[in-house]
User: Fold these one by one.
Assistant:
Number 1:
Amino acid sequence: MSPSKQMNAPAGPTRRQLYPENEPFAFGWLSTGGPHEVYYEECGHRAGRPCLILHGGPGGAINPTMRRFFDPTKWRMALFDQRGCGRSRPNASLEDNTTWALIEDIEKLRERLGVTKWTVFGGSWGSTLALAYAAKHPERVEALILRGVFLLSKKELHWFYQEGASMLFPDAWERFLAPIPEAEHDDLLNAYHKRLTDPDRAVQAEAASAWSRWEGDTISIRGPEARPQKFNEQDFATAFARIECHYFKNGGFFPEDGWLLNQVDVFRKIPAWIVQGRFDVVTPMDAAWRLKKAWPEARLDVVWDAGHASTEPGVIDALVRATDAALKL
């Protein structure tokens, strides 16, 4: 078996496009039994094949484009804003906000919606959470569709927040360093965590803006002009940066570095599609490659003319093809 399918940027008309825009047919807030209320919505066909769509970040929030990777006449889509972000309440809260708490939320949402088993779709941090959920509840996962695989290892965090991506984007990196005194440059994750949890909201805001812009500037091979507008909005930036840094400082709350790869045997029999941009700087291909090597049963599609963004044309094509293929299971 070939370790991956290399996608060589076919002409535009041959590539699949996003499905039409569609609106939720139901929405609400899910009580977690603690300080958080989680916003969720359902889209597509009420009697369609169930799927769960997980956003990135953590702290990134759902958006209407995420619904458009699925045929709305055939899928029953469930989406939710994870704790502390989007329309979930309270905003930017780090209290009782861990990977395991999010997995509990997913199970409560599944029960609320009366779903026995569903396809789980996630990109970037969404792929992390999808894999963690599959490791804990493999019997509830019909298929996995993953993009921009992020195993949340020390190696990946060092690449993006200490040294690595900095050499490809030195101009953007200077802006990322700006809020941090030079004496603290040897441990930027902790330096940012200190400021993002500072009681002074102005200190938080300055750090959050720089943190969020760094990701926005590196997300697409199309350059900074492709940076999503949300990265420029202070409320989004604050929740995004605080929650991301909280999770990353704590190693995703996993019991050990590399925990997700060590769980492959638990979810090995679940059909899976992995879509990876060859020039993804935020979550480099190394993680997807290591996952594929440990899990040869999964299909890996490498999109040669793509970075990290889910809206790169080749990534859209591969993801839409994957969701269509999952309908045939």
Number 2:
Amino acid sequence: MKKKHAAAAEAVPVGSLLPIRAAQAAARAQLLGARCADGHWEGRLSSSALSTATAVMALELAGNEELDRRMIADGQRWLIANQNADGGWGDTILSDSNISTTLICWSALRMMARRDSVAAAACQLAEKWVARVCGDTHPATLARKVAERYGRDRTFSVPILMVCALSGLLGEEDRKAWRRVLSLPFELATVPRWCFAFLRLPVVSYALPALIAIGYARFVHAPPPAPLSWVRRWAWPRVSKLLREIQPQGGGFLEATPLTSFVTIALAAAGEKTHPVADAGIGFLRRSVRADGSWPIDTNLATWATTLAIKAVAVAEKDGGFPAADGRDRLRSWLVRQQFQEVHPFTHAPPGGWAWTDLPGGVPDADDTAGALLALLALAEEDSSAPDRDLLDAASAGCQWLLGLQNRDGGMPTFCRGWGALPFDRSAPDLTAHALRAWHAWLPFLSPDLQKVIARATVQGLKFLKHAQRADGSWAPLWFGNQHLTEEENTVYGTAKVLLALAVLDSGVVLPERMVERAVAWLVSAQHQDGSWGGVAASDASIEETALALDALSAIGVEKIADVPWEALLRSAHCLVEKTSVGTRFPSAPIGFYFAKLWYFEEIYPVVWTVSALGRFLKAYPARAETDTAKLDTA
């Protein structure tokens, strides 16, 4: 376990680290320069065809004709300009066409095709693409294909079918078309929230607004027979009030354009165009449109991006802390303020967690809370024996919040404990590993009682990771994917995230037998000849995945395991140097999954993960780095 690759390391020319150091320094400078005026990071999410299409439909159905005419036209033009050559649309401008986004874009343009010949031509191309993929465009076929794509999870299939029904793709006869939209039991929103884990709802936890609004729209257009229709008619005033109560101040549910648009579209379709929730939703869409006429899937990932950046910069520092000279105190105050201090009205999550954004539509979740905890420790005063009281209080609350989220199987879900096996509510290896890292980092500073609870939770978390590890040694994550792979699973991301946790846990926790060795062997075997990772060929590789793999293998390093060949690490580092033009250019790849498997890319990801990977790689080999420094000084 502890054997080093000294011989392999010595065989590498001393000068080979010079471009790596230069790339890391340039990338670090670019990352620090990307902060907003308030001192933190916001990043920039990719524009989304799906978001743009749903926003255009919402404005068309529930907006003001005079006020929103220009915005609708701009969105329409953006959709047409970004239609793929095959006639379909992908979630981002770098994504392959898929049936979900294509149907929604086709629906949005179809509503305008009668008055616009360019939109009509785009619809014809979309129709041909759908016919090729589905065999035909009969309403029954479209409904079946959408249902098949998402299985028993109706979180996204029902909204797609709703917009198809409204645009006439499911048939011109209203009630018959709406019968093809799967029914949602919106009346169940009236039951106490703690019951949701037992109800096995057909939508995930975050989709409660869609459950209510779309369920009601479907009821209005295609009511069920009595007595169920009586129950739903009775329930509507109550769930309508609940919908208003859980809508964030800014009007955007989860700060997400698709979810907010779907709710607004459904209310308009149900004859509730003047509903306060629809009005606030339209306001959110007006404020979040971009200058080019598009919308992203979410307003921003400011908290997530900031914690990633803080951790990446801190990795290369000798003490593992974020430098005071780079704005540590300001960042610390900002991050502490993002912690939720009250029960969340949407998920009823207790205080103590963090969301992905600093905006009112955010919801506390496992990944962002773990990231915030790790970032807070990096922001502590470097010359003190323990973190400040304010940090320790925030961290204790955050650690306890994560403990309350842990599922019975030992894994961590995203938002709500015990909701079941639907996507984004089930336990996930990447989320579990992140929580384990956060607990382990703060463990020495917490109370003895909390330390004991975390020790037990860590054992349970490791049991989950052992169970979730695949036969080949890899782990599949929840929130990231790879569109070049058949199952779209990004096992490079998942395995890297788990290894980053196991690298620190190995120093004080007994790990399941050969868990690390198997994971490292798989990750090394997945590397391309040019040193990159991602997809089935080097041409499919990304900066993001290459950096994540290098980061994880460097964390395990030659200090911990004999199966990490130095050549693989060095080749990967030089690959990043080349791909980023020595730390100056960072093209993004659509590796991110959003809700319901919507693809996105985030401009900060390749920068932040390159900074972290190269920083950790150089720090893992201090003797060689010192030699390179001496040579650089001599030169």
